[in-house]
């Protein structure tokens, strides 16, 4: 299986429409890949909080339209990264008043939207995304027939191992994590991507952005990790397409040869009384 991670640069000075057009061109250049991945909130930048509202899109908005066509024209599975999604308004509110979500979109090679994942863990503590956006509450997996099952997570989710255990229980073999991870905590990004791969005996495809969003320099360093924790490929800090070939069968082989997942004791995340 061949995957291409598009570590697109997000910098001020390029409009959302211009970047969307550039992302379409980058996807089209990946003909021959099985799976193409874009990062988190690449239309606005993950830290451009003031842009979330004005640039929010309905699920079937301009990014959906552009990416569905890019996927079908190129004949690839496309994880189109995430967009600031404008959800349905509560009953009685005007249409533009729906809550915001950080929503990832996955398209099949026919251009059909096969999954939308609303980020569960919002970053910022008491500001930024944590207050501006609503939280998703559904675990999402996507079956790529004959290849692998994707488990979806986004950026800050990487810090919460229980989410990934849930995805593994739902059948995930390849964990796809679009991000807008800051350079300041790059060591955590690499370490956690490897940890999620080792503990879940899964491939990790972690796709970040390059550039500087709203004054926050980005880590770049997208990476692909195998189920043994080995880094198969890693990008630098600038805009780059990271292409890697891997054998999805390695997940089952690793889980069989070193069957630690069978030794899990369930329910330890809930207090128990003696
Ligand atoms: O957890 C981190 O250090 C970065 C998370 C983040 O930037 C995000 O989720 O947007």
UniProtKB/TrEMBL annotation:
<dbReference type="Pfam" id="PF00795">
    <property type="entry name" value="CN_hydrolase"/>
</dbReference>
<dbReference type="GO" id="GO:0016787">
    <property type="term" value="F:hydrolase activity"/>
</dbReference>
<dbReference type="InterPro" id="IPR003010">
    <property type="entry name" value="C-N_Hydrolase"/>
</dbReference>
<protein>
    <submittedName>
        <fullName>Carbon-nitrogen family hydrolase</fullName>
    </submittedName>
</protein>
<feature type="domain" description="CN hydrolase">
    <location>
        <begin position="1"/>
        <end position="248"/>
    </location>
</feature>
<comment type="similarity">
    <text>Belongs to the carbon-nitrogen hydrolase superfamily. NIT1/NIT2 family.</text>
</comment>
<keyword id="KW-0378">Hydrolase</keyword>
<dbReference type="InterPro" id="IPR001110">
    <property type="entry name" value="UPF0012_CS"/>
</dbReference>
<dbReference type="InterPro" id="IPR036526">
    <property type="entry name" value="C-N_Hydrolase_sf"/>
</dbReference>
